[in-house]
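User: My advisor, Dr. K., asked me to get a structural model of this assembly before our group meeting. I'm new to this, so sorry if the format is off. These are the inputs:
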Amino acid sequence: MSEMNRIWRLRKRPVGDITDDVLSFEEESIPEPSDGEFLFRLNYLSLDPTNLIWMRDIDQYMPPVELNAPMRGVVCGTVLKSHHPDYPEGAIVGGIGVWADYQIGTPQSVNSMGDTGPIPVVDAFSTFAVVGPTAYFGLLHIGEPKEGDTVVVSAAAGAVGSIVGQIAKIKGCRVVGLAGTNEKCGWIKDDLGFDVAINYRTEDVPKALAAACPHGIDVYFDNVGGKILDACLNLMNFKGRIPTCGLISQYTATEPVPGPFNYEMIVMQRLRVQGFIVLDFAERYPEAIAALSQWMAEGKITVRTEIVDHLENALQTLKKLFTGANTGKLIIRVKDV
Amino acid sequence: MSEMNRIWRLRKRPVGDITDDVLSFEEESIPEPSDGEFLFRLNYLSLDPTNLIWMRDIDQYMPPVELNAPMRGVVCGTVLKSHHPDYPEGAIVGGIGVWADYQIGTPQSVNSMGDTGPIPVVDAFSTFAVVGPTAYFGLLHIGEPKEGDTVVVSAAAGAVGSIVGQIAKIKGCRVVGLAGTNEKCGWIKDDLGFDVAINYRTEDVPKALAAACPHGIDVYFDNVGGKILDACLNLMNFKGRIPTCGLISQYTATEPVPGPFNYEMIVMQRLRVQGFIVLDFAERYPEAIAALSQWMAEGKITVRTEIVDHLENALQTLKKLFTGANTGKLIIRVKDV
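Assistant: The format is fine. Below is the predicted structure of the whole assembly, which you can bring to the meeting.
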């Protein structure tokens, strides 16, 4: 192959908002796979809040990306050249890779995506790679909702939140979602079946939440932290659960961010606040994918993917996640399969 | 009975520190028990951080004490006059009562303390009524320590913390305690067998904790919240547990208190933060009392009770809890039994 590779490298750790100089987009030669490795071409790149966490040199659930190293991402690719018998040329793989057209895979970094059946690869990748299982395990295994419970979801029109709310409805819960535009609120309420949608930018959140949750909150699925967490803590019922999926409201902060002012409610109401990452449930992925596939086939779960073409747009598109400008799962499409 | 009753009533809700005008000590007539009730005389009054919570009009795990009502407390008494067959005259009872020489009991408010065997009633009341079971269930059932785990305890020379640390040692853990004087640090290390004691008033807590926990923290038993919680969060290991027993550092605050600045670690390390109150485990008390009795008989658990005579000293003595001036469990002794 004489073609060049294009690759995003981390050049600066972001302080506050993501700036254009944190990553550089460069041309390099295409790598060669060694024994047990394979070369794959990028089809789709998932953009997720955790990308920003990986850029920062803070304690986190994986090592931060090293300065000047290729940017890490959740990727879907097609194997081009293989030195591993289980990953033949043409196989579609998904997992942890880098923001580059061509990259080396190993069985430790990516898995075969198998036959996605009637589901297009891009939809399978968009929903099953990260966000669907995150919603599934976070809500069901950490949140433990029971029929009739009130479940509140923040970032409810986001990729994870929108699925959380729909699973909670399937489980017979009353579901209240918070989102940042009237369009998003309309979508989760009218199209996804949430009982109440609250526009957290225009409404008085504590008041609106209290009105929406006359019997208190049993499960608050926390994607954002900050003021919405504080408002929910005030309404939590006895032995309520708070699966902590992410704290996106504070990822771009430049000063130390205080925790919730109503932290005391953890004792008063005997709450369980539990952080999780979907990787914790890696070996139970098939359970989540089977359930999600069935619900999607039955029309009980609708997902929305915002597809942006061209790898060169990755950095600008990532910024949308932190301003709430995206709707649904953000995917960079390099080449359809 | 022509004698008068002496009773503490809540006259003002405390703002910040407890002031002398929040309670008044008054003389009243002795109440008469109705059918199904009994009259008992106070022997011992337990002073606990939760007394302050009960005085405040905030969301909490029981209704706040009403203004002008008798102050609520954990009490031990002797039945004087009974209209209930299970509580004969002379029975020793313990449970939730009020700060008064004479008071009415019901089976809903107090239970018979039974035969305490070789253990003096004051010791049984001091250790078994609240603090021992709190330490037992909070550490073992919420904290779930495993042999070899590092367990950190704040307020470690306090009534609950000192028992938590000793149970953790019995379970084969490395135990680090934080206390506020060198005398207290000496006691928990030399007498109780903690591996490390940190004086949080004189030492750099984050640095001392990091040195004391070279393999991180698996269980942080939180009695205090605030800066010590923040320092512990920074050192928590993957899937660490934080049983949240109390947040005494903030009970006298007059402004909203921010939660921990390192709240983000809950996601990063997939921590479980869980609040509890000993009442949640009420029906399992016998398990805790049996274990604690045996450990005390074997010399594996030492408890320290600070006994202050006379009911009129209750308010001044309660203040000690919030300045760290007490050592061990604080008890007001009205009449020995």
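One thing worth pointing out at the meeting: The longest strand of chain B covers residues 72-82.

User: Perfect, thanks a lot.
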